[in-house]
Structure formats: C-alpha cells, structure tokens
Amino acid sequence: MRASRVRSCGRLAAYVCESGCGTVAGRNAYHCKDRLCPYCAARRGAQLAEKFLPLIQEMANPLLLTLTVKNGPHLAERGRHLLANAKRLRRQKVWKDHIPGGISVEEVAHGGVTHWHPHLHMVIDSDLPAPALYALLRAAWHALTGDSFIVDVRPLTGDDLPAAVRELCKYTAKLSGIVHYPALVGEFTRYAARHRMVVPFGNCHGRAELADVDAETPEVEHFEAEELACPSCAAVGTMRRAPGRGWSKAEAIPDGRGSGWWVRGNTPVDWARVLQSRPSRTIGT
C-alpha cells in the first residue's frame, strides 16, 4: 500500500488547451506526503520555508542551533536519547532565561552501514550573541547527554536568512545510502511514523501558520478549469483534463516559467489520443 502511494506520487494529470493553440501540459495532482518520497520532500521543504521565513524575520536575533548525539546502530534508541535530552534542555534555566521560542527540525542521516545519526536543527530567538550562547549550551548539552558536546550556534542575518531557511527545511531524512537495504528503510519508517519531525516551541507554539506543517496524510489537489491559464497562449479557462492516467515526472520537465505546469520532454505526444474526447472540467484523483 505504502509503496503504491509513493510510486503514484508525482504523476501529472494531462491537460489540453482548447483555445486553438493545442498545447498539452501536465499538472501535479497527487502528493503521497511520505517522508521517503523525494518529490514530497522537495515540496514539503518549499512549503516549510515559505511558512518559516516570515516568522523568523520577526525574531530580534535569529540563530541556527544544531544539537547532535553520538552515532549508534539503533535509530529508535538514538532518537529517544536526542529528543528526551532536547526536551530537558528546554526546561533548564539557561534556556528559559535566553531563548523565548523557535522551531525544531529533526534530521536523520545514516553513515556507513551500521550507524544512525539523528540530530536537531533549531531556529531560535535569543537575547545573547551566538558565541555567548554557544558556551552556555555546549556545557549544558554535554552534562545532559553524557556523550556529546557537539553544539553549533550561528547567526542568521540579512541576505543569508532565506538561503539558510531553505537549507533547514530541505531534508528531514538523508537516506540515499540505505535505499537498497530494506531493513534500514523499515527501521526509519517505523521510527518516523510515531512522532512529528518539525516542532514549534515556546512563543512559536500554537501559531496558526505552522499548523499541520509535518502531516503525512496523502493529498489530492483539485483544479477548476477557470483557475488555469494555458502556459503557451495564456488563455484562461481553456485547459481541459485529457483522458488517461497522465504522465510520470520522469517523462516531463517544468515549463520554466514558474506557472506550475509541466511539459513533455522529447517524448512525442499522441495528439489524436489526447484530443479524442472532452473530459470533465475538474481534476479529481
């Protein structure tokens, strides 16, 4: 079931322009939202960055904090160790005195064939400069974990901020090295299924714009024909759903204009088949 959802993700519903120009283009309709899906990972990252950036720009002194723990062979154990100690850290006086809130993104990587490396990236607001906060948090983190003093704190300012936010939101999992090891893939999916990997805290908790930022429920987008403009002639309301299952993204490329349309690469289009019927005006599943 899960494999089928991921396999179907990113299929493009085909549309044809009936204004006379005959353009055929695809629109992404189904998103599985699985954490192992590369299409949804990129989409989720873009959505998170769009939500996070205005919030972070409100911070007086935004800092990027990274917390790590020693690598280990069992992801669930290392993950619990990381998250439990991060929760304890947020209860300590040093945290409460200097960090009113922020957003935490958990990232999971795998090194070699035996060691998991979960870690947390947090965008935080603080009344301290990065070097001073680093000195305090490094000592507190090592005292809590007993196995890690690796803490990184760096400022997020000016032109660097949008790029840093995009990088922060880009991955919750860097697992390209384990895709051929079903046992490891299974270990990650069992671990990730039971908790949120993006967590607002402190004065960022409860913000409406951050609701459901880490949901994994599959999503089907519905487009009304009146909303869509042809990517070639720009006529509005002329794009009609074409018959058939559409295309895989492997068969198409973005049209390059930021319109959300995809066009076939060098694959010939069977115009007769596409134009042989007039489909409904609304895209479904």
Structure, explained:
- There is one protein chain.
- The chain is α+β, with helices and mostly antiparallel strands and 285 residues long.
- The chain has two domains: 2-32 and 218-275, no CATH class; 38-210.
- Helix content is 33%, strand content 23%.
- The chain is built from eight helices and 13 strands.
- It has helices at residues 2-8, 38-57, 75-91, 93-98, 130-145, 160-170, 182-192, 271-275; strands at residues 12-17, 24-28, 30-31, 62-68, 101-111, 115-125, 151-155, 173-174, 198-202, 219-220, 239-241, 252-254, 261-264.
- Strands 4, 5, 6, 7, 8 and 9 form a six-stranded mixed sheet that branches. Strands 11-1-2-13-12 form a five-stranded antiparallel sheet, with no helix packed on it.
- Helix 2 runs antiparallel to helix 6 (160-170) and helix 3 packs across helix 5 (130-145).
- The longest helix is centred in the first third of the chain and has 20 residues, at 38-57.
- It is globular, with a radius of gyration of 23 Å.
- Residues 266-285 have low confidence and may be disordered.
